[in-house]
Amino acid sequence: MRVALLVNPAARAGAHTGIATRAAERLRAHGVQTAIVSGGSAAESSSLLRTAIDVGVDAVAVAGGDGTVNLAIQEVAGTGTPLGIIPAGTGNDFAATLGLRELDAKAAADAIAGGVTRRIDLARVTRADGSTRFFGSVLASGFDSKVNDRANAMRWPRGGSRYNIAILVEFLALAGMPYDVELELADGTRERVTGDLVMATVGNGRTYGGGIPICPDADPADGLLDLVLVRPAGRLRLLRLLPRVYRGTHGSVPEASIRRVRSVRLAAEGVTAYADGDPIGALPLTVDVVPGALTVFTPQA
């Protein structure tokens, strides 16, 4: 087997590079031909990865977090080329959805060398200009995208606690935003929701922000997406809701609703959506599910 191993282009001399080196050594010990791919930017890394796929690698692996995994997803979606993940990022939420988050470099490499794969869905975003992009875990808009704005601007601390601090700071300025949401349910029925929302989140996976279970029951292989809408309430009431979000039990409170959908169009003025932890575009956006679009390596039972 020949594998192209993509490394986070923003951390070529840092921790990701060391993890990638250990993973590559482990793969080679299994007899897997492994070439490390890393450009000077996301665009260059994507171009190098496309070239490797065109040349004929058998699989793609990623050493990094959700953003780096997202780069690889764009290249392998719908191709049948399997994707392996060596979790090495801040959040690793997509890896968590696949049961890979806690794997170290050697265990993740072993899963790739083992050759066991499964097919999962991807979510596809269509922007107002018609351009598209896939994501694997969660798209956030509203309060949670503002949290991402703040968390990404913070230099300290690292890890999931950065998101916790950003949540508390943004909470002080929390206000509802006028949304227009058009959704298609699993049975093909269409509905429209209008009015103020605190947030509108679309999940192919379960968690974001380093493990927050915003879509606690999402199944990345069920052919559907989970849509979470939260309506405004008093600040004290919403503060009491936060611990339920961290436990994944928020779906039972009156201000929150979780629906299974095939597609959803989100529109709100001045709101930028994030997907897999990175900005993906300003609303309005349409998100639909692409069943079985991605083949991933999974640990052997």
UniProtKB/TrEMBL annotation:
Domain (DAGKc): give its ranges.
Answer: 1-129
**Entry keyword annotation includes Disulfide bond:** no
Q: Name one GO biological process term.
A: phospholipid biosynthetic process
**Name this polypeptide is given:** Diacylglycerol kinase
Homology family = Belongs to the diacylglycerol/lipid kinase family.
Name the species this protein comes from: Microbacterium allomyrinae
- Enzyme class, first EC level, given as a word: transferase
Q: What is its EC number?
A: 2.7.1.107
- What are the UniProt keywords, alphabetically? ATP-binding, Kinase, Lipid biosynthesis, Lipid metabolism, Nucleotide-binding, Phospholipid biosynthesis, Phospholipid metabolism, Transferase
Q: Please give the Gene Ontology molecular function terms for this protein.
A: ATP binding; ATP-dependent diacylglycerol kinase activity
User: What cellular component GO annotations does this protein have?
Assistant: plasma membrane
- Record's keyword annotation contains Nuclease: no
